[in-house]
Each structure stands twice: as structure tokens, then as C-alpha cells.
Design brief:
Layout (H helix, E strand, L loop, with lengths): L1 H11 L4 E10 L6 H19 L2 E6 L6 E10 L2 H16 L5 E10 L1
């Protein structure tokens, strides 16, 4: 099935661009997992609703002050996907309740 889809992409010139973004954050004012979850959930919900992307917490779930967030966008245009991820990063950096530890982008094939 996957090979058939690949052949159609090549034959018809379809382009599928998938970009994943992993952001490691620190939430210094979180005194409990509940405080942390509130910040993380609010940020993920905002990203999903404003930017129409996939977003999830993907790591460090048991830490009170750390979280790893994953975002993914799909488009037929690489420039559009990069623009969306730029806006995701801007949204995360603008959140006053957290500090960004690292952010890594990966193109998926």
C-alpha cells in the first residue's frame, strides 16, 4: 500500500512536506504537576486552535518544571510548513510562564 502511494506521488508530482518541531521547556513557577499541566495544556490548546497543527506533550511528563512538546505540520508547500513552525516558535517564546531550553526541527520523509 505504501509503495503504491509513493508511485502515485511520483507519477502525479505530489509533494508532501512534513515538519516536526520538538521544544524542551522549563516552567520555573510550577510547584506541582497540576501547575505544570495547566501551563502545558493552555499552550498546546492555543497552538492547535490558532495554527491548525498537531501538538502533544511528548516527554518529561513526571517532572514538575520540565516538559517536552511536539508539534507537526503537513502541507504541499515547504515554505508554508516553515512559516507555520515559525509562528509556533513565536507563540511558545511569547509565553511568560515558561523558558525555552531547546527547539529542534526535523523534516520527515
Amino acid at each position: 500500500m505504501a509503495a503504491d502511494m509513493w508511485q502515485r506521488r511520483v507519477r502525479y508530482g505530489w509533494q508532501i512536506h512534513v515538519l516536526a518541531l520538538e521544544i524542551d521547556i522549563r516552567i520555573p513557577l510550577a510547584a506541582s504537576l497540576k501547575d505544570r499541566r495547566q501551563v502545558v495544556r493552555s499552550l498546546l490548546d492555543r497552538a492547535r486552535s490558532r495554527l491548525n497543527i498537531s501538538a502533544a506533550e511528548v516527554g518529561a511528563q513526571e517532572s514538575h518544571q520540565r516538559a517536552v512538546l511536539g508539534f507537526a505540520a503537513v502541507s504541499s508547500s515547504a515554505a508554508e510548513v516553515e512559516d507555520v513552525m515559525d509562528r509556533v516558535e513565536s507563540l511558545v517564546w511569547s509565553c511568560p510562564d515558561l523558558e525555552v531550553v531547546s527547539a529542534d526541527r526535523s523534516w520527515l520523509e
